[in-house]
């Protein structure tokens, strides 16, 4: 990633993934790296307050039926 001069990291996942993103962000900050991180929420619980439906929720519902 560093050798290719990447400036943005996109991460898709649930709660654990987003906690990992925070750790990655802190490491980038500690190393003074100018790399932005975009977290895209995806979880089966559909418990993300700012969106109507999380990626993965509808698939889980359809699979359960």
From TrEMBL:
InterPro entries: ATP_PFK, PFKA, Phosphofructokinase_dom, PKF_sf. Pfam families: PFK. SUPFAM superfamilies: Phosphofructokinase (SSF53784). Coiled coil: none annotated. Residues 8-64 form the Phosphofructokinase domain. Keywords: Allosteric enzyme, Kinase, Magnesium, Metal-binding, Transferase. This is Phosphofructokinase domain-containing protein. It comes from Aegilops tauschii subsp. strangulata.
């Amino acid at each position: 990633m560093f050798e290719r001069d990447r400036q943005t990291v996109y991460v898709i996942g649930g709660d654990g993934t987003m906690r990992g993103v925070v750790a990655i962000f802190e490491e980038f900050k500690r190393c003074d790296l100018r790399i932005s991180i975009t977290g895209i929420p995806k979880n089966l619980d559909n418990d993300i307050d700012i969106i109507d439906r999380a990626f993965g929720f509808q698939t889980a519902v359809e699979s359960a039926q």
